[in-house]
Amino acid sequence: MNPDPLAEFRRLVSHRARQYSKQWEASKKLIEGTILPSTLAQLHRTVLATDLPASVKEHLFRLCERETANRVQDLDGECLKSLTGFPPAKALRALSVFFELVPAPGSQWPTTRLTSENIEQVVRNMDNPFDLFRCADVASLLDIGAGDLSFAEEVVDLYGPDLMQQNRELILHCLDRLDPHSRLGGPLHASADRQRRLQETPGLSFSFFGNQDMFELEQLDAQGLLAPRYTVATCWAPATPTFAYEPTRVSRSLIDQELIRTKGVFRRTRFEREHALEVAHGDRLLLFPPWKFEIIGPLALLELLARRGALCVLGSVDDQVFWELLAQLLEDSRYRPQEEPFNRVTVPKIFGNLYDALVGLSVGESIDLSSLATLRCQSLPSADGHTAEFRYIRIHRGATFPGSPASSTARKFSFMSEEVPPWMVTLIPA
Ligand SMILES: C[S@@+](CC[C@H](N)C(=O)[O-])C[C@H]1O[C@@H](n2cnc3c(N)ncnc32)[C@H](O)[C@@H]1O
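Above: the input record for the complex with S-adenosylmethionine. Below: its predicted structure, written as tokens.
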């Protein structure tokens, strides 16, 4: 046993690089310019969650400080040399192999063989759509905009023990755009403790990707870190205002007017060493991540969910996002008036009987949307040209449901006296 932890680490890294020749070959692509920042971010996350001698960790953290580098030459060469004994490019490849950032050859995330008809039959008879994990051939979940990972933890607590008893793996991949290093975002950050607990849960294949925009998954896909399709894709408390305005229905200038009217005057600023968005709300100045007021709209979210999930669940959808989203799911174009903001006055008029029927649902009740109005049958075209189409849509009223997992935002709804109960939308892509 080598008494110097750094020397011992070097020995193990170079041994692993020689031993796993296929991963070594595949590691080449991880150091290419466009992929490099996400390789470094992934390395950083892995190091955070790995038990290593302090001196080794210190070197690895120093290396990851240059997370925005897009050339291997911009990394700390001395640091790479101490960690691996290799020159920079080889060194980073060796670390990628050591920390298993390269997917094992031939290994692929399993995907369900259930058809959308099978899933509809099962889910129609379930109060809780996540119970699909109990009977599907593959138990895999993608949680986008996962926030503090409380939903992930509830899923694991609820389904993990039974799946484990049946010797079945639970695959749980979560991502969020918040940068884990950012001082903005407050309670939405994924706590390191919760990540560690999930990482260490037996029978669970868990990954969390922070600083990860849900609409930029190409690099994670190139690294084989995401499944092409999950049994369930979910998004809890979809971000407002990001998904509260549909850009194919309302113009950016109208959206800006509405944002100023409802949230306050906003401007780009800096907070310590970060970019930020400052919003003058009443007599308070609020700070958010700089992308907080980027408007994407519900169509792009629906398209992403439909592409990634055999079953899609939007949980704890607030009233504003809900009506904008609903308008995109219905055939009749009168639900999508151009340049007309949705609010407490316009929504009852635009949605008419449909509004009365949905608002008439008690908390805990649900309804098959096709029993109220015709679903949009042609594919829904989003701004980026992708499309989505759903064969079954169920609307549930409420934030949390007995026996169902829920996120921390959903659990906070019962304490928010000014908010009307949110919605849950279960969708099965055609
Ligand atoms: C209202 S919070 C909900 C968090 C969590 N799902 C919950 O229910 O407690 C919305 C989350 O979406 C994340 N988010 C917003 N835009 C995103 C994007 N483009 N890609 C990934 N995450 C995003 C935010 O960082 C935030 O954590």
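Notes for the reader.
Residues 116-243+295-429 form a domain with the Rossmann fold fold (CATH 3.40.50).
The pocket of S-adenosylmethionine is lined by residues 144-147, 175-178, 188, 213-215, 236-237, 239, 242, 316, 407-410 (CB under 6 Å).
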